[in-house]
From TrEMBL:
Belongs to the RNase HII family. The keyword Nuclease applies. Manganese or magnesium. Binds 1 divalent metal ion per monomer in the absence of substrate. May bind a second metal ion after substrate binding. The gene is rnhB. This is Ribonuclease HII. It comes from Sphingobacterium bambusae. Its cofactor is Mn(2+); Mg(2+).
Length: 198
Protein backbone atom coordinates (compact mmCIF):
# COMPACT_ATOMS: atom_id res chain seq x y z
CA UNK A 1 0.00 0.00 0.00
CA UNK A 2 1.43 3.37 -1.01
CA UNK A 3 1.73 6.25 1.48
CA UNK A 4 -0.16 9.52 0.95
CA UNK A 5 2.52 12.04 1.99
CA UNK A 6 6.18 12.17 3.00
CA UNK A 7 5.52 14.95 5.51
CA UNK A 8 2.38 16.58 6.93
CA UNK A 9 3.47 20.17 7.53
CA UNK A 10 3.47 21.61 3.98
CA UNK A 11 1.44 21.21 0.78
CA UNK A 12 3.38 18.48 -1.01
CA UNK A 13 3.76 17.77 -4.73
CA UNK A 14 5.02 14.47 -6.09
CA UNK A 15 7.05 14.63 -9.33
CA UNK A 16 8.16 12.08 -11.88
CA UNK A 17 9.20 11.98 -15.54
CA UNK A 18 8.76 9.66 -18.52
CA UNK A 19 10.84 9.13 -21.63
CA UNK A 20 14.31 9.75 -20.29
CA UNK A 21 15.83 6.72 -22.00
CA UNK A 22 14.20 7.28 -25.40
CA UNK A 23 15.88 7.97 -28.72
CA UNK A 24 13.00 10.11 -29.95
CA UNK A 25 10.38 12.52 -28.68
CA UNK A 26 10.23 14.86 -25.69
CA UNK A 27 10.72 13.98 -22.06
CA UNK A 28 7.48 14.54 -20.11
CA UNK A 29 7.06 15.23 -16.41
CA UNK A 30 4.12 15.63 -14.07
CA UNK A 31 3.51 17.14 -10.65
CA UNK A 32 0.58 16.03 -8.48
CA UNK A 33 -0.76 17.31 -5.16
CA UNK A 34 -3.23 15.09 -3.31
CA UNK A 35 -5.16 15.84 -0.10
CA UNK A 36 -3.05 14.83 2.94
CA UNK A 37 -5.34 11.91 3.79
CA UNK A 38 -5.74 10.72 0.18
CA UNK A 39 -6.10 6.99 -0.44
CA UNK A 40 -6.34 4.97 -3.63
CA UNK A 41 -5.35 1.28 -3.47
CA UNK A 42 -5.21 1.02 -7.28
CA UNK A 43 -2.44 3.60 -7.68
CA UNK A 44 1.03 2.23 -8.31
CA UNK A 45 4.23 2.91 -10.23
CA UNK A 46 3.17 3.30 -13.89
CA UNK A 47 5.67 0.60 -14.95
CA UNK A 48 3.77 -1.93 -12.81
CA UNK A 49 0.44 -1.15 -14.52
CA UNK A 50 -0.95 -2.12 -17.91
CA UNK A 51 -1.67 0.62 -20.44
CA UNK A 52 -5.40 0.04 -19.90
CA UNK A 53 -5.06 0.52 -16.11
CA UNK A 54 -2.92 3.65 -16.55
CA UNK A 55 -5.51 5.19 -18.87
CA UNK A 56 -8.34 4.29 -16.47
CA UNK A 57 -6.49 5.89 -13.55
CA UNK A 58 -5.61 9.12 -15.36
CA UNK A 59 -9.05 10.80 -15.14
CA UNK A 60 -9.38 9.65 -11.51
CA UNK A 61 -6.05 11.27 -10.63
CA UNK A 62 -7.00 14.47 -12.45
CA UNK A 63 -10.38 14.62 -10.73
CA UNK A 64 -9.20 13.78 -7.20
CA UNK A 65 -5.93 15.73 -7.07
CA UNK A 66 -5.91 19.14 -5.41
CA UNK A 67 -3.70 20.19 -8.33
CA UNK A 68 -1.83 18.50 -11.18
CA UNK A 69 0.18 19.56 -14.21
CA UNK A 70 2.03 17.90 -17.09
CA UNK A 71 4.89 19.50 -19.02
CA UNK A 72 7.48 18.49 -21.60
CA UNK A 73 10.92 19.37 -22.94
CA UNK A 74 11.53 18.84 -26.65
CA UNK A 75 14.17 16.66 -28.30
CA UNK A 76 15.87 19.82 -29.53
CA UNK A 77 16.06 21.19 -25.97
CA UNK A 78 17.33 17.81 -24.71
CA UNK A 79 20.17 17.97 -27.25
CA UNK A 80 20.97 21.48 -26.08
CA UNK A 81 21.03 20.97 -22.29
CA UNK A 82 21.36 17.13 -21.92
CA UNK A 83 18.73 14.66 -20.74
CA UNK A 84 19.37 15.03 -17.01
CA UNK A 85 18.88 18.81 -17.09
CA UNK A 86 15.92 18.34 -19.44
CA UNK A 87 14.27 16.01 -16.90
CA UNK A 88 14.70 18.63 -14.18
CA UNK A 89 13.38 21.34 -16.50
CA UNK A 90 10.28 19.29 -17.37
CA UNK A 91 9.55 18.81 -13.66
CA UNK A 92 10.13 22.52 -12.97
CA UNK A 93 7.73 23.41 -15.80
CA UNK A 94 5.08 21.11 -14.35
CA UNK A 95 5.57 22.69 -10.90
CA UNK A 96 5.25 26.15 -12.51
CA UNK A 97 1.84 25.15 -13.89
CA UNK A 98 0.28 23.91 -10.64
CA UNK A 99 -2.81 25.93 -9.71
CA UNK A 100 -1.99 25.34 -6.03
CA UNK A 101 1.72 26.00 -5.47
CA UNK A 102 3.76 23.31 -3.75
CA UNK A 103 5.54 24.12 -0.50
CA UNK A 104 7.37 20.77 -0.42
CA UNK A 105 8.43 18.49 -3.30
CA UNK A 106 9.07 14.76 -3.40
CA UNK A 107 10.79 13.41 -6.50
CA UNK A 108 11.29 9.93 -7.85
CA UNK A 109 14.99 9.09 -8.08
CA UNK A 110 18.18 10.18 -6.38
CA UNK A 111 18.82 13.63 -7.90
CA UNK A 112 16.89 16.85 -8.43
CA UNK A 113 17.72 20.47 -9.16
CA UNK A 114 16.26 22.70 -6.42
CA UNK A 115 13.09 24.53 -7.46
CA UNK A 116 12.45 28.10 -6.17
CA UNK A 117 14.18 27.33 -2.85
CA UNK A 118 11.34 24.96 -1.96
CA UNK A 119 12.48 22.03 0.20
CA UNK A 120 12.55 18.70 -1.60
CA UNK A 121 13.31 15.06 -0.96
CA UNK A 122 14.60 12.58 -3.55
CA UNK A 123 13.16 9.10 -3.05
CA UNK A 124 14.62 6.11 -4.89
CA UNK A 125 11.75 4.05 -6.34
CA UNK A 126 9.42 6.71 -4.95
CA UNK A 127 6.81 5.87 -7.60
CA UNK A 128 6.30 2.58 -5.75
CA UNK A 129 6.14 4.24 -2.30
CA UNK A 130 4.16 7.51 -2.48
CA UNK A 131 0.78 8.09 -4.08
CA UNK A 132 1.58 11.52 -5.54
CA UNK A 133 4.77 10.27 -7.24
CA UNK A 134 2.93 7.19 -8.57
CA UNK A 135 0.21 9.48 -9.93
CA UNK A 136 2.82 11.76 -11.51
CA UNK A 137 4.46 8.74 -13.15
CA UNK A 138 1.09 7.69 -14.61
CA UNK A 139 0.29 11.17 -15.95
CA UNK A 140 3.76 11.67 -17.45
CA UNK A 141 3.69 8.22 -19.07
CA UNK A 142 0.16 8.43 -20.51
CA UNK A 143 0.56 11.96 -21.88
CA UNK A 144 3.90 11.06 -23.45
CA UNK A 145 2.55 7.83 -24.96
CA UNK A 146 -0.34 9.73 -26.53
CA UNK A 147 2.08 12.30 -27.94
CA UNK A 148 4.27 9.58 -29.45
CA UNK A 149 1.21 7.82 -30.91
CA UNK A 150 0.35 11.03 -32.81
CA UNK A 151 3.94 11.42 -34.08
CA UNK A 152 3.91 7.77 -35.15
CA UNK A 153 1.22 8.48 -37.75
CA UNK A 154 3.72 10.59 -39.73
CA UNK A 155 6.67 8.25 -39.19
CA UNK A 156 5.27 4.69 -39.25
CA UNK A 157 8.60 3.08 -40.20
CA UNK A 158 10.05 3.74 -36.73
CA UNK A 159 7.37 1.67 -34.94
CA UNK A 160 6.66 4.38 -32.35
CA UNK A 161 3.14 3.05 -31.80
CA UNK A 162 4.79 0.01 -30.23
CA UNK A 163 8.05 1.38 -28.80
CA UNK A 164 7.05 5.01 -27.93
CA UNK A 165 10.54 6.15 -28.96
CA UNK A 166 12.48 3.70 -26.79
CA UNK A 167 15.51 2.00 -28.38
CA UNK A 168 14.07 -1.33 -29.47
CA UNK A 169 15.97 -3.31 -32.11
CA UNK A 170 13.33 -2.40 -34.72
CA UNK A 171 13.59 1.30 -33.85
CA UNK A 172 17.41 1.28 -33.96
CA UNK A 173 17.44 -0.57 -37.29
CA UNK A 174 15.00 1.95 -38.77
CA UNK A 175 17.28 4.82 -37.71
CA UNK A 176 20.35 3.09 -39.17
CA UNK A 177 18.48 2.43 -42.41
CA UNK A 178 16.43 5.63 -42.83
CA UNK A 179 18.29 8.18 -40.70
CA UNK A 180 16.99 10.50 -37.99
CA UNK A 181 13.67 12.33 -37.97
CA UNK A 182 13.29 15.90 -36.61
CA UNK A 183 11.96 14.24 -33.43
CA UNK A 184 15.09 12.22 -32.68
CA UNK A 185 17.57 13.24 -29.99
CA UNK A 186 20.65 13.76 -32.08
CA UNK A 187 23.05 13.58 -29.11
CA UNK A 188 21.92 10.03 -28.26
CA UNK A 189 24.02 7.25 -29.76
CA UNK A 190 21.76 4.83 -31.61
CA UNK A 191 24.08 1.87 -31.19
CA UNK A 192 25.10 2.61 -27.60
CA UNK A 193 25.20 -0.74 -25.78
CA UNK A 194 24.34 1.07 -22.55
CA UNK A 195 20.87 1.87 -23.87
CA UNK A 196 18.48 -0.72 -22.50
CA UNK A 197 16.41 -2.75 -24.89
CA UNK A 198 12.71 -2.46 -24.14
Amino acid sequence: MLISTYQQQFIEAGCDEAGRGCLAGPVFAAAVIFPADYCNPLLNDSKQLSEKKRMALRPIIEQEALAFAVASVSAEEIDSINILNASYLAMHRALDMLKTPAAYIIVDGNRFKPYNNIPHECIVKGDGKYLSIAAASILAKTYRDEYMDKLALDFPQYDWLANKGYPTIKHRNAVLELGLTPHHRKTFRISDPQLKLF
